[in-house]
Design brief:
The structure holds two protein chains of two kinds. By secondary structure, chain A is an alpha+beta fold. Helix content of chain A is 24%, strand content 38%. In chain A, a hairpin with a 2-residue loop joins strand 5 and strand 6. By secondary structure, chain B is α+β, with helices and mostly antiparallel strands. Chain B has 16 helices and 19 strands. Classes of the chains: A alpha+beta, B alpha+beta.
């Protein structure tokens, strides 16, 4: 299971794992939309391409999820399906390029979903396999404010 | 997931505990709690969060926590900390994502007895509130979508903007913390995303623990003060709990990213990244204060617009002769520039209250004339099944807590634990059996917010009263709740 939901007193988090950093990030986005809920999705999708950056991997994870969340909250873009993420590093930090597809949901739909207010930096973690336990995959953790 | 705290606290007396300064802590931690609460906290890292706040530069006095403390992001919920205006910092983690989440209490000219004379009235009033006040995930208004210019005016003027639009009375502003408008907002700084998220959310409740609750006064502890607040046995009341909605969340998110870089630039060592901060005098610090203030004013306006809608609902159902007046409006997630006496000298401080309420004692110059001798109303909502309290600020708030007090019950169960506990149960029916009628957009949210998910607010109030921070005035019982 690429992500596991974990408890927090008032909110919720995800424990993440992936065979690569890119897969971990992609599964983090899937985990976010799992927390939001699983509405009936209309046919047709819109291409979603964006880039984001972070000072370090933890910052990158939070920025990536925050961007996905903002697109959902403002435009109703529910990300589903395969996500291709390319990550590279330069002098300023880390950059991720995201290529996926979103189902545009009308904002006035009567849906019983969870309001995720924000992605937090609380105990955020991204560990390469050599630093993770067990040391077989990339592992991460992130908490959300509900 | 419970973890043992790294820091421990020792008792000062029955309601105060100290985390002694050690290591990189710049000051002590001070927690207002009783022995039973402290025992429960040994399994919760919120004590560590109090100690972490004590690491921040320019902190004045202790890093504090109120008895409704629980684990938060950066600061614990229930956290209070003040920083020197010249060499202190400001931290978005000390305010929270829902900037100026707060509570407003309205009183009506009806009593519960009068309402109950017609058994259909409560349901009709709840239906009207449910219809007039959008609630639920992403709740938005089509009839009040604001363009950038109007939204920027809201961010500067706060509740006064709504009153100027005909959505309230001038007297409402007299009974708001800071008259519903904080100075120093800069509406040019919030991002385009913040504007987009806020444009159609003015006058909406949101979801989660936000609510609109009809209640009644079922106990009076201080009759004279209650009279000053316009409350008496059986008075029908309405609570509104909401904040700055998506605009505030986006402002916090935008500035966290900036502050993380700033903390490194200013060589501030962070025990927790969520405590990222910048010196108050720095460009980053000034920008966050100005934007947080803008979001705070949006929240004051939000609760004012909802008040207008509540009045409309009451007029439609109860008749136009029923008056609905504002008792008080308080923020419980905020950072404000205030003057306080510290070791006999007046100092300008940035007081962070995260899940904590301002509590002005009697004769404070910011009190409206009607509350000058009573102290400020301190609104402490409990869970939807038991009770809430109205307190009045007392002298110890000024001498010990930078005029701060608790804000609510504090969560006992995580959301998933509450959902597990609610499995197979009909929470709406259980509440109905307790005399509480619910209109909830989401049954999942209702289960997450069920009474058993929260601590007993009476225990929280016991501690603040024992500490001399605030005193009980009245207790309110819920009759009907609208939840997102």
């Amino acid at each position: 299971m690429p992500y596991t939901v974990i408890e927090h007193t008032a909110d919720v988090g995800l424990d993440l794992e992936g065979d690569s950093l890119e897969l971990l990030l992609a599964d983090a986005i899937k985990g976010l939309f799992h927390l939001i809920g699983t509405p009936p999705l209309p046919p047709g999708t819109q291409s979603q391409r964006w880039t984001c950056s972070g000072l370090d991997l933890e910052d990158l994870l939070v920025r990536l999820l925050a961007e996905a969340l903002a697109r959902w909250c403002i435009d109703g873009h529910y990300l589903a399906g395969p996500l291709a993420i390319v990550v590279h590093r330069d002098a300023s930090g880390w950059q991720a390029e995201v290529d996926g597809a979103a189902h545009p949901l009308p904002r006035d739909l009567d849906l019983d979903l969870t309001e995720v207010k924000a992605v937090t930096y609380h105990r955020v973690q991204v560990l390469p396999p050599e630093d993770a336990a067990p040391a077989d995959k990339w592992r991460g953790r992130v908490f959300f404010d509900l | 997931m419970p973890e043992r705290a790294k820091y421990s606290a020792e008792p000062i007396d029955d309601c105060r505990w100290r985390i002694a300064k050690r290591g990189a802590m710049r000051t002590d931690g001070l927690i207002f709690a009783n022995a039973a609460m402290m025992e429960a906290m040994r399994q919760d890292p919120c004590l560590d969060q109090v100690a972490n706040v004590a690491h921040l530069p320019g902190i004045v006095g202790s890093a504090m926590a109120m008895p409704d403390i629980h684990w938060g992001y950066g600061f614990p919920i229930g956290g209070v900390a003040a920083f020197d205006a010249d060499d202190g910092v400001i931290s978005p983690g000390g305010v929270g994502y829902d900037i100026n989440c707060g509570v407003r209490l309205l009183r009506t000219s009806l009593t519960r007895t009068q309402l109950n004379q017609d058994p259909a009235l409560l349901g009709a009033l709840l239906d009207a509130l449910y219809a007039h006040v959008p609630s639920g995930v992403g709740s938005a208004r089509r009839d009040l979508t604001l363009g950038p210019k109007a939204l920027s005016q809201v961010m500067v003027q706060g509740a006064a903007w709504a009153v100027a639009q005909g959505m309230g009375e001038a007297a409402d502003l007299d009974h708001c913390e800071s008259r519903g408008t904080l100075p120093g907002a800069d509406p040019q700084i919030p991002s385009k995303r913040a504007y987009e998220r806020g444009r159609d959310q003015l006058g909406t409740l949101g979801s989660g623990n936000h609510f609109c609750e009809i209640g009644w006064v079922d106990a009076v502890f201080d009759a004279a003060t209650a009279q000053s607040f316009g409350l008496a046995m059986d008075t029908l009341t309405i609570f509104i709990h909401t904040g700055s909605r998506g605009l505030g969340y986006q402002v916090c998110d935008d500035h966290l990213a900036t502050m993380i870089k700033a903390a490194s630039r200013y060589a501030i060592t962070l025990p927790d990244r969520q405590l990222c901060c910048a010196p108050l005098g720095s460009p980053e610090g000034r920008a966050y204060l100005a934007t947080m203030t803008a979001a705070a004013n949006f929240a004051f306006a939000n609760r004012q617009v909802i008040t207008h809608q509540v009045r409309q609902a009451c007029s439609d159902v109860l008749g136009p002769s029923v008056k609905v007046d504002l008792v008080y409006d308080v923020a419980h997630n905020i950072a404000k520039m205030e003057r306080h006496l510290v070791d006999g000298a007046s100092r300008r401080l940035c007081v962070h209250r995260k899940g904590a309420t301002r509590a002005l004692p009697p004769h404070h110059p910011e009190l409206p004339p009607g509350y000058a001798t009573t102290g400020q109303p301190v609104l402490v909502p409990g869970d939807m099944g038991r009770y809430s309290y109205v307190l009045a600020g007392c002298a110890a708030a000024a001498t010990e807590t930078f005029t701060s007090c608790c804000h609510g019950a504090g969560r006992l169960l995580s959301r998933s634990a509450a959902l597990k506990a609610a499995k197979g149960r009909k929470i709406t029916e259980e509440l109905s059996a307790r005399g509480v009628t619910v209109r909830a957009y989401s049954h999942k949210t209702l289960a997450e917010e069920m009474p058993a998910a929260y601590k007993d607010v009476a225990h929280v109030v016991d501690v603040v009263e024992a500490a001399g921070i605030a005193r009980r005035v009245v207790r309110l019982r819920p009759l009907g709740v609208v939840k997102g």
